[in-house]
Amino acid sequence: YNQREKSRNASLIIQMNGKSTEIKDPENPSAEPRKFAFDHSYWSHDEFTERDDGYLEPASSKYDDQLKVFNDLGKGVLENAWQGYNCSLFAYGQTGSGKSYSMVGYGNNKGIVPLACEDLFKGIADKRVNAKKDEEYQVTLSMLEIYNEQVRDLLNTKTLQKGGLKVRQHPTKGFYVEAQTTWPVNSYDEINNKINEGTRNRTVTPLYILYFIYFSRAHTIVAVSFVQKSSNDLGQNMTKTSVINLVDLAGSERAESTGATGDRLKEGSAINQSLSSLGNCIKALADISMGKKKVVGNKLYLTLISVPFRDSVLTKLLQNALGGNSKTVMIAALSPADINYDETLSTLRFADRAKAIKTQAIVN
């Protein structure tokens, strides 16, 4: 949802019908719109009414509210977590397109992260009513951000050091952040307070898009570790572990549209570079999933593809989510305004490549 675009009275170039998304070129209105198909297409720009408590509810069937998005995406992530799969959900799009609104929300319009945490503890409470003696449920939380290729622990700012926390590689678990803190949480209120604390510690910057407003200038990763301990029918102790990664990426942007200079230009360049590395990884993974082949003369060659996860801190930490042991959902946030045509089309192409990736998730 992007209220700023409405205030400018910009022309809308996006149309959504079911699972289809169409985009028109504002400089060539007579041309056929480009069409993209996804698992879901949500319209959250207008066609809503605001209740007394501040919640934005549908005024027509066109508008998809926060609860609709959570029921389609967040509940599926939680179901996978209960089964013992690693899960990842991340949001991609340009600055101001609504990524943080979808992931975190605003006021009573809760996003996927708080709704998922609330639903998780409701499920644990229901399970504990009829739980056996050896049944146990544990939830821990960590929250970090990647700013200018440096990793900060948002729940323990004392760990901040020159160059940030170090990213190491484990032979079986892959990349991880050394010295990152994890906090045990026993209720929704506890985890919500911790996430709010981490959100307050995020790096934000005033940018000029339609007027000065603060935007997050770092990638944020919330990791919820969920452990279930119980015994099977043979009396053996069993443990299922799931890590739920909820990722709010910093927005891609064009320097000329934000008026960024100096440090703002430098951090924008670092963001775009890491997102470019993410795009290269997604392209390589998509090619692998589709079994990319090359024909030379009458001979067919299989192309050996290397995935450049090491090109940025972001792609290192998202390696498992994109190409490893995880069930992954991606949200592509779009601006429907004609002034953002290039960025919106780029996001649609990015998402179109990402949907070709196939991951191999197993129960932990």
UniProtKB/TrEMBL annotation:
<dbReference type="GO" id="GO:0008017">
    <property type="term" value="F:microtubule binding"/>
</dbReference>
<dbReference type="InterPro" id="IPR036961">
    <property type="entry name" value="Kinesin_motor_dom_sf"/>
</dbReference>
<dbReference type="InterPro" id="IPR019821">
    <property type="entry name" value="Kinesin_motor_CS"/>
</dbReference>
<dbReference type="GO" id="GO:0005524">
    <property type="term" value="F:ATP binding"/>
</dbReference>
<feature type="region of interest" description="Disordered">
    <location>
        <begin position="1"/>
        <end position="31"/>
    </location>
</feature>
<dbReference type="InterPro" id="IPR001752">
    <property type="entry name" value="Kinesin_motor_dom"/>
</dbReference>
<feature type="compositionally biased region" description="Polar residues">
    <location>
        <begin position="9"/>
        <end position="20"/>
    </location>
</feature>
<dbReference type="Pfam" id="PF00225">
    <property type="entry name" value="Kinesin"/>
</dbReference>
<keyword id="KW-0493">Microtubule</keyword>
<keyword id="KW-0547">Nucleotide-binding</keyword>
<keyword id="KW-0505">Motor protein</keyword>
<comment type="similarity">
    <text>Belongs to the TRAFAC class myosin-kinesin ATPase superfamily. Kinesin family.</text>
</comment>
<feature type="binding site">
    <location>
        <begin position="93"/>
        <end position="100"/>
    </location>
    <ligand>
        <name>ATP</name>
    </ligand>
</feature>
<protein>
    <recommendedName>
        <fullName>Kinesin-like protein</fullName>
    </recommendedName>
</protein>
<keyword id="KW-0067">ATP-binding</keyword>
<dbReference type="GO" id="GO:0005874">
    <property type="term" value="C:microtubule"/>
</dbReference>
<dbReference type="GO" id="GO:0003777">
    <property type="term" value="F:microtubule motor activity"/>
</dbReference>
<dbReference type="InterPro" id="IPR027417">
    <property type="entry name" value="P-loop_NTPase"/>
</dbReference>
<feature type="domain" description="Kinesin motor">
    <location>
        <begin position="1"/>
        <end position="357"/>
    </location>
</feature>
<feature type="compositionally biased region" description="Basic and acidic residues">
    <location>
        <begin position="21"/>
        <end position="31"/>
    </location>
</feature>
<dbReference type="GO" id="GO:0007018">
    <property type="term" value="P:microtubule-based movement"/>
</dbReference>
